[in-house]
Design a protein that fits this description.
The complex is a heterodimer of chains A (about 290) and B (about 325). Chain A contains twelve helices and no strands. With about 290 residues, chain A is an all-alpha fold. Chain B is an alpha+beta fold. Chain B has two domains: about 230 residues, 3-Layer(aba) Sandwich (Rossmann fold), CATH 3.40.50.300; about 90 residues, Nucleic acid-binding proteins (OB fold (Dihydrolipoamide Acetyltransferase, E2P)), CATH 2.40.50.140. Helices cover about 25% and strands about 30% of the residues of chain B. In chain B, strands 6-7-8-3-9-10 form a six-stranded mixed β-sheet, with helices on both faces. Chain B has a five-stranded antiparallel β-sheet with strand order 13-17-14-15-16, with no helix packed on it. In chain B, strands 2-1-4-5 form a four-stranded antiparallel β-sheet, covered by helices on one side. Classes of the chains: A mainly alpha (about 290), B alpha+beta (about 325). The complex binds adenosine-5'-triphosphate (ATP) and magnesium ion. The site of adenosine-5'-triphosphate has 12 residues of chain B, from strand 2 and helix 1.
Chain lengths: ~290, ~325
């Protein structure tokens, strides 16, 4: 039997996984990227152009949309993280009714986002359940559906994201060997110090995964901000929909999609930088 | 500078008793060794002193001060975990320096103390590595350095040398003893290894099933154990029943209670070949510095160890005479 050159063997070995990735992830991304420059674009004329980016950054509504999309990614994610972290810690303790709570807090996981949005709406909209309950006792609920700060969107997103993040973060906190935390205590760390210096850094992969997944979900969120968000600005996702299906402007859609992806990638890179500096700060790494 | 007093300390996990109510005092500067089979509660006892496991009842005092209300971080107790429990996200130097950081020691002073502690355990060159980049024995030494560097009032060592090779073990054993005496720190040392216990300890506590079976200085405990458990746990021994007439199976008279048990260490039995000897060599094992014989005498099988250099090794089947170098030691309370 003739032996194949090593390079060919290696290529054959990575073909199944590499090919799959290239076909289903790389190719669509590449097409969107090229399309944003007018190349191989659906409905485009095929020549290289910066027109779509000029359009994106030249239009106030789109600029605001880009900022707003980023806002809808960052703020609900931070809010959810602030709730999930203590919740995951708490769930690691034993308390009466823990089993029940453990099952109940996961309920939002199986409720689709659009349903969550409607729940928030019926609860908090003008004349909603909360208003009807609170007005008689003299509490005037601020406007949180279609309000400027998108509080309704934040609530609905966090309602979905908190159990998700808690699950992932709880898993990585739970994987930390108990003796490691106890060792920190015998060396003089208070529970809080042990939390910041031992548990958080060791659970960081889980925390990050939860953070990034929620963040990226927020960048592309469509249904929830469409229902609960303010009239202006609209998130870029909504502009993408309108430009694609009402104006057939696929080049602009590709430019918008590329920008949303770019911001996600930047956040990812920022994350890698932060964990590196955390390693030096916490771990004493000198490399 | 620290005396430890345990009074009526007890711990159960559910219905299984880990430590039965126990009193124990460790003198200031004493090196105490806990010796006992797996699961007898040694680790549990250490964790209660360190404050990371709470006793069900009883009091722990260090220098007369009740520890009940003190969390582990306020006790100044150094604990070397059986599982090492190194911080995986920190370098060796950061691991060792952690306790100093918690105590707010200035950076330069801390770095110098970390360096000295690492030098002590022969790990200076590995200061920048992560725990995952170390062998089991190296990790164990980091754990040791981390506990020592804080200069604790009480040093608790849970099998700190179990993963080292014999040579390093002996070397570190001596260093540890020297260090303990230099720092005059009160130390409790857990081990399975009776040789290690005897080499290190001022006093040995033999434990079984959550209780103290026997205690004493190494020499007393080895030569004159009160219980069969301690006699058998501290090295090898022959436990032989004494007949109602006060005789050993080969019709040698003994002082001590008739109908009782005596302990005879293998090295206290001298084996001499004799054509009309009452004993017969069943088997032999060459151990290097000694030869161990299994000898059948009047239906009883004894272990005898002959360390006489230059004497001939007796082949299997040789008829032998036995003489005891010391009178057999009577054991109490065994059937
Ligand atoms: N967290 C726990 N939950 C339930 N049982 C426990 C727990 N920790 C220890 N035990 C039990 O308590 C008993 C004493 O355990 P301990 O760890 O103190 O033994 P040990 O003497 O240190 O044993 P080894 O020499 O194997 O380390 C054992 O029977 C063990 O199964
Ligand atoms: Mg143990």
């Amino acid at each position: 039997m003739r032996r194949l050159p090593q390079g060919v063997v290696a290529a054959l070995l990575v073909l199944p996984s590499g090919g799959y990735l290239a076909l289903f992830f790389g190719l669509p991304l590449l097409l969107a990227f090229l399309g944003s420059f007018g190349l191989y674009a659906r409905g485009g004329d095929g020549g290289f152009t910066l027109r779509h980016y000029a359009d994106l950054f030249g239009t106030q509504a789109y600029r605001d949309g880009l900022v707003f999309s980023t806002y809808l990614a960052i703020v609900p994610t931070l809010v959810s993280l602030a709730i999930s972290l203590p919740l995951a810690m708490g769930l690691a303790q034993t308390f009466p009714g823990r089993k029940l709570f453990n099952a109940l807090y996961k309920v939002p996981l199986v409720v689709p986002g659009i349903v969550a949005a409607f729940i928030v709406m019926t609860l908090f909209d003008r004349g909603g359940l909360a208003a009807r309950l609170l007005t008689p006792i003299g509490i005037d609920l601020p406007k949180i559906v279609r309000d400027d700060w998108a509080v309704g969107v934040i609530i609905a997103t966090a309602w979905k994201a908190v159990p998700f993040m808690t699950l992932i973060i709880g898993g990585s906190l739970g994987a930390i060997q108990k003796d490691i935390i106890l060792a920190a205590r015998t060396l003089g760390a208070t529970p809080l110090t042990a939390f910041w210096r031992i548990q958080i850094p060791l659970a960081l992969p889980g925390i990050t995964a939860a953070f990034l997944l929620t963040f990226i979900g927020g960048m592309g969120a469509f249904a929830v901000p469409n229902l609960l968000g303010p009239v202006y600005p609209l998130p870029l996702s909504v502009h993408m929909y309108v430009n694609a299906f009402e104006r057939n402007n696929w080049g602009l859609v590709a430019a918008m999609g590329t920008m949303l992806s770019l911001i996600s990638v930047l956040v990812l890179l920022a994350y890698y930088r932060t964990t590196r500096s955390l390693r030096t700060a916490y771990g004493g790494e000198v490399r | 500078m620290s005396q430890i007093t345990l009074t009526g300390i007890a711990k159960a996990y559910g219905t299984s008793v880990a430590i039965a109510p126990m009193d124990l005092t460790v003198a200031d500067g004493e090196f105490l060794t806990l010796l006992g089979p797996s699961g007898c509660g040694k680790t549990t006892l250490m964790r209660m002193i360190a404050g990371i496991t709470l006793p069900d009842q009883g009091a722990i005092r260090i220098n007369g001060r009740d520890m009940a209300a003190l969390p582990p971080e306020k006790r100044n107790v150094g604990l070397v975990f059986q599982s090492y429990a190194l911080f995986p996200h920190m370098t060796v130097a950061a691991n060792v320096g952690f306790g100093l950081k918690m105590r707010g020691i200035a950076r330069d002073a801390a770095a110098e103390r970390v360096r000295a502690a690492l030098a002590l355990v022969d790990l200076e060159p590995l200061a920048a590595r992560y725990p995952r980049e170390l062998s089991g024995g190296q990790q164990q030494r980091v754990a040791l350095a981390r506990a020592i560097v804080i200069e604790p009032d009480v040093l608790l060592l849970d099998e700190p040398l179990s993963n080292l090779d014999a040579k390093l073990r002996e070397h570190l054993r001596e260093d540890l003893r020297n260090l303990q005496q230099r720092l005059r720190v009160t130390a409790i040392y857990v081990t399975h290894d009776q040789a290690e216990a005897m080499a290190l300890a001022d006093r040995i506590i033999v434990m079984d099933k959550g209780r103290i079976v026997e205690e004493g200085a190494p020499v007393d405990l080895y030569r004159a154990p009160q219980t069969r458990f301690a006699a058998e746990f501290l090295g090898q021994t022959n436990v032989v029943a004494v007949t109602a007439a006060g005789l050993l199976p080969w019709n040698t008279g003994v002082a001590g209670p008739a109908d009782g048990m005596v302990s005879i260490r293998p090295e206290d039995i001298a084996v001499t070949p004799a054509l009309d000897g009452a004993g017969r060599v069943l088997s032999l094992t060459f151990l290097g510095p000694a030869v161990e014989y299994r000898i059948d005498i009047g239906g009883t099988v004894l272990r005898a160890r002959d360390s006489g250099t230059g004497t001939a090794i007796l082949p299997q089947g040789t008829q032998v005479d036995l003489t005891l170098r010391v009178p057999p030691h009577p054991l109490q309370g065994v059937a």
